[in-house]
């Protein structure tokens, strides 16, 4: 149980900046997700917390200890790797017992502790098998079991689900969430999958190019993206972003005109809104343009236009029908709109 | 289904069977011939009258009252003290294998896990040294060894053999270590191991086939070496191969050639046992290294 603090942490390789000034305070028992595209520095950040990568600059505090110069083994953390990192020559039971053995936990306690972990990850039937004889999901559960067998202060999980198939990913995700709430251990979880981030996290850190873009609860990040990167990264489909001009509270772009935006700024801006917030209307509407495509999603249909080079989508009822090229209209009320500065990408606060 | 795929026309099956048989005979014949002949006397095994004498052994029968005799073995092992050569070979091979493997696993692991560019050049340099004929190293060493007065001793030979062997073990083990994911070391370190414990507890158990294979090749190099051992060892410290050579070099005295033949057979037998014993590890080790390294 511990609070984890990263104070202005930097990682550089020569002139290449991997992580730029990462500053974050992670509360005890918090489930924190680092989210970003590949190469954004999220894994590097985690590896620095684990001690597998040196910190170029800044400090990492675990509880009341500065851990920068500690070996991984002395940091009292446990980690789940993307490729599991199981010991192929050991059985499931021995894999889970390994941390106890090397940490010199008294032998008589081993069996009870291992059995408790095995129980939690539901592997009681597979204890004598080797990792090679297990499926991907089972292997990942062994790795989880090995991580929870002793009580570490922090769990680190490096894309633990990305090698699993879609169905297994959903169930293992739920299992991880459940485990963490039972164990109440501070957890840092790295992923590039925004759905994983949204479902698991207490707080999400969105990263890009080594920098923190936004920190917030999943709802905050979804409803209140701090810049165009976060807006375009979070959500499926991502937020629609249209470039245009703002003048006296009226946004004008190619095929779109939104009035009554509560802002005094003017100039070049990017307007953003979510596909599910807008609606298709027969008359009027802020968008009136030839339809680019229609996709049936099952529970809904997705109507797409091409406005000024960007694709803009709106969700509508599943029985909506139109031909490609027909003029289709949509209502975009000012209250669902987000405004971003086109040049910097930063949010222009409308409140 | 596999039956259908494996079914061959009869002539082809016959032809391949005959081919394999021929190959077996050609490959095995020299060994079998030597082994059979080692129980004869020189007059039979090197008979000028009739080559069949080597098989039936009439001279041997006349001399010893039986077509088989252990005279060659007795001469080599007892009179010529071939057992000394065996002991020397054992010492040389055991130490060469141990030292090569120790340096090779540590060095190969370090090179495989190091992110620095110089590892490539180190390995390239190793390859160059590996490619050099052994005799270049020996001729360079000869003079300093005389001057330091260390010529003729077993440790000197062991050092030179290790030097010749090390580039190869380094390469081989390096590629084995590369085939083991880095996650394994890192998982072990997070689980509470030091770097060295991670190496010992997590990596080496997985590496075992690779270590056995590399160790076997080191063993064969030391066991079969002639260039280095014949030039660097004094007569009393000679290993088996130069000793056999010295038997062959003194044909004037009758019977001595048979010592060589008996000694050759004595030297081959341990190899057979070893290969049979380790064949599974060797095959898995070789393929693992070849495919993934």
Description:
The complex is a heterodimer of chains A (351) and B (293). By secondary structure, chain A is of the alpha+beta class. Chain A has helices at 42-50, 92-102, 107-120, 136-148, 166-183, 194-200, 218-223, 228-233, and strands at residues 4-13, 16-26, 31-35, 57-62, 65-66, 77-80, 154-158, 186-191, 203-208, 211-216, 240-247, 250-253, 256-258, 267-273, 279-281, 287-296, 301-307, 310-316, 327-331, 338-341. Chain B has 293 residues and is mainly alpha-helical. Chain B folds into two domains: 2-74, no CATH class; 76-290, MetI-like (MetI-like fold, Orthogonal Bundle). Chain B has 15 helices and no strands. In chain B, helix 7 (82-113) packs parallel to helix 10 (154-178). The model of chain B is unreliable at 289-293 (pLDDT under 50). The A-B interface holds A 50-52, 71-73, 77-79, 81-90, 98-99, 102-103, 143, 146, 156 and B 181, 183-184, 186-194, 197, 201-202, 205-206.
What is the secondary structure topology, with strand pairs?
The complex is a heterodimer of chains A (351) and B (293).
Chain A lengths: L3 E10 L2 E11 L4 E5 L6 H9 L6 E6 L2 E2 L10 E4 L11 H11 L4 H14 L15 H13 L5 E5 L7 H18 L2 E6 L2 H7 L2 E6 L2 E6 L1 H6 L4 H6 L6 E8 L2 E4 L2 E3 L8 E7 L5 E3 L5 E10 L4 E7 L2 E7 L10 E5 L6 E4 L10
Parallel strand pairs in A: 3-8, 3-9, 6-7, 7-8
Antiparallel strand pairs in A: 1-2, 1-4, 4-5, 9-10, 11-12, 11-14, 12-13, 14-20, 15-19, 16-17, 16-19, 17-18
Chain B lengths: L1 H5 L3 H28 L4 H4 L7 H4 L1 H7 L6 H9 L2 H32 L4 H14 L2 H15 L5 H25 L3 H9 L4 H30 L2 H6 L7 H9 L7 H37 L1
């Amino acid at each position: 149980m511990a609070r984890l603090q990263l104070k202005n942490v930097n990682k550089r390789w020569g002139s290449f900046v991997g992580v730029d000034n990462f500053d974050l305070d992670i509360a005890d028992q918090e489930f924190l997700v680092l989210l970003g595209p590949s190469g954004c520095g999220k894994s590097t950040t985690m590896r620095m917390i684990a001690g597998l990568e040196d910190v170029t600059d800044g400090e990492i505090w675990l509880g009341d200890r500065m851990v920068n110069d500690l070996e991984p083994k002395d940091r009292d953390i446990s980690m789940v790797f993307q490729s599991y990192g199981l010991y192929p020559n050991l059985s499931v039971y021995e894999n889970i017992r390994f941390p106890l053995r090397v940490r010199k936990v008294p032998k008589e306690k081993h069996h009870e502790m291992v059995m408790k972990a095995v129980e939690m990850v539901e592997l009681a039937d597979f204890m004598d098998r080797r990792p090679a004889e297990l499926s991907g999901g089972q292997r990942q559960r062994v790795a989880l079991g090995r991580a929870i067998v002793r009580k570490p202060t922090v769990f680190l999980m490096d894309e633990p689900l990305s090698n699993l198939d879609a169905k297994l990913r959903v169930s293992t995700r739920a299992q991880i969430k459940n485990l963490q709430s039972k164990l109440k251990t501070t957890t840092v979880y790295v992923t590039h999958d925004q759905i994983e981030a949204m479902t698991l996290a207490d707080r999400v850190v969105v990263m890009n190019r080594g920098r923190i873009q936004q920190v917030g609860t999943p709802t905050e990040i979804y409803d209140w993206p701090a810049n165009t990167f976060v807006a375009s990264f979070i959500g499926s489909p991502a937020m629609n972003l249209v470039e245009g001009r703002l003048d006296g509270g009226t946004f004008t772009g190619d095929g779109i005109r939104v009035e009554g935006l509560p802002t005094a700024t003017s100039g070049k801006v990017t307007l953003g809104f979510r596909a599910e917030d807008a609606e298709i209307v027969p008359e009027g509407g802020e968008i009136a343009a030839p339809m680019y495509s229609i996709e049936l999603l099952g529970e809904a249909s997705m109507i797409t236009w091409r406005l000024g080079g960007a694709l803009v989508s709106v969700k509508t009822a599943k029985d909506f029908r139109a031909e490609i090229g027909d003029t289709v209209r949509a209502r975009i009320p000012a209250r669902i709109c987000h405004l971003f500065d086109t040049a910097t990408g930063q949010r222009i606060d409308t409140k | 289904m596999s039956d259908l795929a494996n079914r061959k026309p009869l002539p082809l099956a016959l032809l391949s069977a005959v081919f394999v048989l021929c190959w077996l005979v050609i490959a095995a014949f020299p060994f079998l011939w030597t082994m059979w002949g080692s129980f004869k006397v020189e007059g039979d095994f090197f008979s000028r009258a009739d080559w069949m004498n080597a098989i039936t052994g009439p001279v041997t029968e006349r001399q010893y009252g039986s077509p088989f005799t252990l005279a060659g073995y007795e001469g080599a092992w007892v009179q010529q003290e071939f057992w000394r050569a065996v002991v020397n070979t054992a010492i040389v091979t055991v130490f060469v294998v141990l030292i090569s493997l120790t340096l090779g696993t540590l060095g190969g692991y370090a090179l495989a896990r190091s992110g620095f560019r110089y590892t490539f050049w180190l390995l390239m340099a190793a390859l160059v040294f590996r490619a050099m004929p052994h005799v270049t190293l020996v001729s360079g060493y000869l003079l300093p060894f005389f001057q330091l007065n260390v010529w003729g001793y077993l440790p000197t030979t062991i050092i030179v053999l290790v030097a010749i062997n090390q580039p190869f073990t380094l390469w081989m083990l390096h590629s084995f270590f590369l085939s083991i994911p880095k996650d394994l070391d890192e998982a072990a370190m997070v689980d509470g191991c030091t770097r060295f414990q991670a190496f010992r507890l997590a990596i080496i158990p997985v590496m075992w086939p690779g270590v056995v294979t590399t160790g076997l090749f080191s063993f064969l190099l030391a066991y079969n070496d002639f260039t280095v051992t014949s030039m660097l060892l004094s007569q009393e410290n000679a290993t088996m191969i130069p000793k056999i050579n010295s038997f062959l070099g003194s044909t004037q005295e009758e019977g001595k050639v048979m010592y060589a033949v008996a000694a050759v057979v004595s030297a081959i037998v341990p190899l057979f046992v070893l290969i049979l014993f380790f064949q599974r590890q060797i095959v898995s080790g070789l393929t693992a290294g070849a495919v993934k390294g």
